[in-house]
Amino acid sequence: MRRFSLLTLLKEATNAHQGWGRQWRAPEPKVGYDAVIVGGGGHGLATAYYLAKEHGMRNIAVLEKGWIGGGNTGRNTTIIRSNYLYDESAAIYEHALKLWEGLSQELNYNVMYSARGVMMLAHNVHDVQSFKRHVYANRLNGVDNEWLTPEEAKEFCPPLNISKRLRYPVMGAALQRRGGTARHDAVAWGYARGADAMGVDIIQNCEVTGIRRGLSGAVEGVETTRGFIRTPRIGVVAAGHTSVIMEKAGVRMPLESFPLQALVSEPVKPVFPCVVMSNAVHAYISQSDKGELVIGAGTDQYVSYSQQGGIHIATHTLDAICELFPQFTRMRMLRNWGGIVDVTPDRSPIIGKTPVQGLFVNCGWGTGGFKATPGSGHVFAHTIAKGEPHPIAAPFTMDRFRTGRLIDEAAAAAVAH
Ligand SMILES: Cc1cc2nc3c(=O)[nH]c(=O)nc-3n(C[C@H](O)[C@H](O)[C@H](O)COP(=O)(O)OP(=O)(O)OC[C@H]3O[C@@H](n4cnc5c(N)ncnc54)[C@H](O)[C@@H]3O)c2cc1C
Prior knowledge:
six-stranded mixed beta sheet, FAD/NAD(P)-binding domain, binds flavin-adenine dinucleotide, D-Amino Acid Oxidase, Chain A, domain 2, 2 domains, alpha/beta
């Protein structure tokens, strides 16, 4: 693999950029692997990368039914933050945020992580109390988060309307300055390129259609649209399709799948300096480097595998955005789309072993898993390689829905992007 550097860039500039070559191979599946990852999103590719890099497992494959990054990784609004309430959540999201900070250097690939600050607006007394509680809890965990008055919030984000006559007036905000955005598909590509260079087979257009188990109950391999592949370890990282795949091994998951939408405006010059989220009105917004306003909505209220959400959800979101930022009222929306998110009852992920020997699962990131990509892959790789959960992943077992040790970010945040 050719490294990106100033020297190679200059060289290629004189060569019309003809010499870069493919960034990863397109191998045929082998008969068997030491481990197989199902799902070529950011989480699956990160898992493969850390399996190869930190645990020396090179004879592994990532199987993707479409193209890598074509699932939620390529559909999300790229908000990154770690200011979650509970200790377990703060630990895993902060682990991810620390990895984000050095990821471009680690992968030698520009993932365009931009720590432009994520500001979460409070619109009522409950929001104020809840966000202040987050600020205090985060500080105890060494996670940066600070409280801003409405005037300070406007100073940080000048387009914000802080008039007191709004239906949802801004009563303050919690700001995580290290929060921000990254380029979603670059994350998938960067991990794919790094994993491929260490010998990992990334196999696209290869759908897993079954999981074969032996007489002992342990996994023996996966049935795919490109034939049977033998393996003693399977890591399922398939976001909205986790339940479907796990059912093939006879495991019923505590998950519901919902469509979640996002939309972008026509591109304009830089007008929006940070990320703003409003949980109460269910809208969040940032500006991409291309100039589009990137806007996200809440989930539809009904379960579905459709990758389009209800139009009323997007309309409601745009109403809220126009009230908070009246100058955007005249802008046109360019396109919208949806992704299928898998949601657990406490809105925290499941990472770990399953009742089936050799079968591991990483899912339930719901509306907020992009920010976790590096940390999730890192701890899941450890879990697969060692057969035991990484200490940071240990609380996120499936078993918590039996024991009652929930990590209730649903009640804590109302929304988790
Ligand atoms: C509109 C929207 C906005 C969001 N905004 C944010 C945000 O701002 N911040 C944030 O942190 N998170 C956000 N999220 C959530 C985030 O996108 C996801 O949690 C995260 O991307 C999940 O990554 P993944 O790699 O697990 O899933 P995916 O990227 O979905 O990867 C799973 C892959 O599995 C593949 N697959 C499925 N079934 C099979 C099969 N049978 N065989 C082989 N492959 C299969 C799929 O094709 C897919 O590529 C948002 C999600 C959506 C939809």
